[in-house]
Amino acid sequence: MTVIDRLQESLRALSLTAVESRLENLLEQAAKNEPSYGDFLLDVLTVDVEARRQRYLKTRLQLAHLPYSKNFEQFDFGFQPSIDERQIRELRTLRFLHEASNVILLGPPGVGKTHLAVALAEAAIRAGQPAYFKTAHELVADLGKAYREGRLDRQLRVYLAPKVLIIDEMGYLPMDELGATIFFQLVSARYERGSIILTSNKSYGDWGSVFGDPIIATAILDRLLHHSTTINIRGESYRLKDRRRAGLLPRPDDQPPPLVEPAAIPAAASGGRGKRSRSL
Ligand code: ADP
Ligand code: MG
To answer: What are phi and psi of 106, to 5 degrees?
Structure first.
């Protein structure tokens, strides 16, 4: 049995799989660069530490159920001047997590609310803080079902455990009385214990109608906003920008682009193909 064989056996026994797969490469590099014993050991261990970190991150990201992967570098702040970048910089320190403070992103569709919520969640996960993402509608449906089956308390723990809970699209669908009561219970239970990042297309004044009851809406807002940052985005949809840009590209016959956006033309007028875009 060669030294390599015995090394491989030991690495396997210790589950140092990343080192095992790079063993020959590590040895070749060492023969060439002749690092000190300490440096060599450090190189070897770093390979495995890094691989473990990546595995841990991947698992945490999967557990968070994010709808997509986005970061702050992918966000064009120039396009959205209503966002105060200082606020974003402060949030990126993740101090709000340690203070169990909430983040509320408000604005019309397509302005980047979910993008920023996901970017914050990913930053939290990278910092070792578990996150969990759910749309408001899914969350209330899930907890409503648990309530009817007599296991609300147990199911609530799923939403209390992560350091940060992302509740997306609050307000797109109105809630019934049970939904509003459950939502209140959840917000109360997380109050001063764990952060909520919430996105909504409804301004605070409209929350009464979202919850179907101004009293419960006030009680929810009271707890949610006590320690919180509100990011009010008042720009135009980024999705619309892309379509605009597409419309401005020179067309093959060099005609000026149509004044009416193709998507806005009723289906009948455009030969049945002009479906109204759902992204707006
Ligand atoms: P909202 O949740 O506000 O409806 P999203 O966050 O889902 O909007 O944004 C819609 C799409 O546009 C996403 O793909 C997102 O990454 C992108 N987007 C929105 N705003 C920006 C921006 N300022 N810079 C880069 N991409 C953006
Ligand atoms: Mg969204």
So the answer is: -115, 150
CA distance 270 to 258: 13
* Atom number, ligand 1, closest to the C-alpha of residue 70: 16
What residue spans define the domains of the chain? 3-63, 72-238
Please list the residues that pair with 134 across neighbouring strands.
167
- Separation CA 44–CA 83 (nearest Å): 45
82 CB near ligand 1 (under 6 Å): no
154, 146 contact by CB (below 8 A): yes
111 lines ligand 1 (CB under 6 A): yes
Q: What is the CA radius of gyration of the chain?
A: 25
Atom of ligand 1 nearest to the CA of 107: 3
Taking the chain (280 residues) in runs of 10, the rounded mean pLDDT of each run is 93 95 95 97 96 94 97 95 95 98 97 98 96 97 97 97 97 93 97 97 94 95 97 90 63 42 40 37
Collapsed DSSP state (helix, strand, coil) of residue 228 = strand
User: Quick check: 207 and 87 in contact, CB under 8 A?
Assistant: no
- The tokens of 277 are what? 């875009």
| Cα 232 to ligand 2 centre (Å) | 14
What phi and psi values does residue 250 have, to the nearest 5 degrees? -60, 135
CATH topology of domain 72-238: Rossmann fold (3.40.50)
Sequence-distant (6+) residues with CB within 8 A of 151 are none
Return d(Cα 71, Cα 69) in angstroms, integer. Answer: 7
**Hey, which of 80, 113, 238 would you mutate to test ligand 1's pocket, going by the most ligand atoms within 8 Å of its Cβ?**
238
Instruction: Give CA–CA dist 259/273, Å, rounded.
Output: 18
DSSP 60-82: HHHHHT-SS---GGG--GGG-TT
Q: Against a cut of 0.70, is the pTM above it?
A: yes
